[in-house]
């Protein structure tokens, strides 16, 4: 039985810190489009940093299988990070967001056309890397991820400010927009190294991705802008009914019709252009215990993630994968 200790994300990822640094060097220095402007934008994006969580999952799993990080491993890690970063760039345009990770984002520095193209270029470079990798099963996997991202985003746009959503919708959208890429980052490694463990590795990534998004939804309601690195309470302002609000609506519909009607009215007013966030929403979410409910929900997914990798032999890389699951729920 491995004892898990509370650690920072930097401490957890220390076993692959050198590999992540090499990945950063590759992203910043080797992605060189012929356009100077585009090259400058991409270097700015990757120099801004980030956790590199999806590549870290791939690297940790390679080493948990007692294998070395080779060129194929780097290509898989780059593909995941390129797709993730491109999706963030496009999301910021769709949401009219000007801040990312506490700093002005690409959308705030350049016009939409250039920003869109920078995201497109990263998607294209991911496709080039898939060609270089030359493993059909992994190409199909990441092609499905790209389809999922588009489908999840359009579903979210279509359901802006809609209170006619349920958990089936939430999980479908969350899988497509977030968990699908987490899943690919671990599944691709199993396809390459150990086909008998594909489903187990895929399950780890998927469950971790679902938990990660649920906690991200929670943090939007109970953290500050400084902590988040983006405007707090922005999800509802952008029309997104995420896990805490969905649970709140569900509970009020069952137990307090007056408060339920009040909350529906607030959401409808925001949909009509009154985008001023109401602190009453926070009060109602607190009153229904929705934050704690969602934290418990995320813990359930993390427990499933940990169970999925029980087959790995005990080493520091398996420990780090388990610690990542604990870290997600402790943010």
> Strand tally, please?
2
* CATH homolog superfamily: Farnesyl Diphosphate Synthase
Query: By helix and strand content, what is the structural category?
Result: mainly alpha
Q: Order of strands across the widest beta sheet?
A: 1-2
What's the helix and strand layout?
Elements: H1 9-12, H2 17-30, H3 36-47, H4 53-64, H5 71-94, E1 99-100, E2 103-104, H6 106-109, H7 112-133, H8 136-158, H9 167-193, H10 198-222, H11 225-228, H12 234-237, H13 243-255, H14 257-271, H15 279-287, H16 290-308, H17 316-330
Antiparallel strand pairs: 1-2
Helix pairs in contact: 2-3, 4-5, 4-9, 4-17, 5-7, 5-8, 5-9, 8-9, 9-10, 10-16, 13-14, 13-15, 13-16, 16-17
Give a quick precis of the structure.
This protein is an all-alpha fold. 74% of the residues lie in helices and 1% in strands.
Protein model, in words:
The structure is a single chain. The chain is mainly alpha-helical. The protein has a single domain, classed as Orthogonal Bundle (Farnesyl Diphosphate Synthase), CATH 1.10.600.10. It has a two-stranded antiparallel sheet with strand order 1-2. Strand 1 and strand 2 form a beta hairpin. The chain is globular and about 60 Å long.
């Amino acid at each position: 039985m491995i004892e898990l200790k509370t650690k920072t994300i930097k401490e957890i990822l220390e076993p692959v810190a050198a590999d992540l640094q090499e990945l950063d060097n590759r992203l910043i220095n080797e992605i060189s489009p012929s356009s100077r402007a585009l090259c400058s934008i991409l270097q700015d994006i990757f120099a801004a940093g980030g956790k590199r969580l999806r590549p870290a999952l791939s690297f940790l799993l390679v080493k948990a299988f007692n294998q070395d990080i080779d060129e194929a491993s780097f290509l898989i890690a780059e593909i995941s990070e390129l797709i993730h970063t491109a999706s963030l760039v496009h999301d910021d345009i769709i949401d009219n967001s000007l801040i990312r990770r506490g700093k002005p984002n690409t959308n705030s520095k350049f016009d939409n056309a250039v920003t869109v193209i920078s995201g497109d270029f990263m998607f294209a470079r991911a496709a080039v890397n898939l060609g270089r990798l030359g493993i059909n099963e992994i190409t199909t996997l990441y092609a499905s991820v790209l389809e999922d991202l588009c489908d999840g985003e359009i579903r979210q746009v279509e359901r802006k400010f809609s209170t006619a959503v349920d958990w089936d919708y939430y999980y479908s959208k969350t899988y497509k927009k977030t968990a699908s890429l987490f899943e690919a980052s671990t599944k691709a490694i199993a396809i390459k190294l150990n086909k008998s463990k594909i489903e187990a590795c895929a399950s780890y990534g998927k469950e971790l991705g679902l938990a990660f998004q649920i906690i991200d939804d929670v943090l939007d309601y109970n953290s500050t802008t400084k902590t988040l690195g983006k405007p707090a309470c922005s999800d509802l302002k952008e029309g997104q009914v995420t896990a805490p609000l969905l649970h709140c609506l569900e509970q009020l519909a069952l137990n307090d019709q007056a408060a339920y009607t009040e909350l529906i009215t607030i959401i409808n007013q925001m949909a009509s252009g009154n985008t001023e966030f109401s602190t009453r929403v926070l009060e109602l979410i607190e009153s229904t215990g929705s934050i704690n409910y969602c934290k418990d929900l995320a813990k359930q997914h993390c427990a499933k993630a940990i169970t999925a990798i029980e087959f790995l032999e005990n080493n520091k890389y398996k420990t780090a994968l388990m610690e990542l699951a604990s870290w997600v729920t402790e943010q």
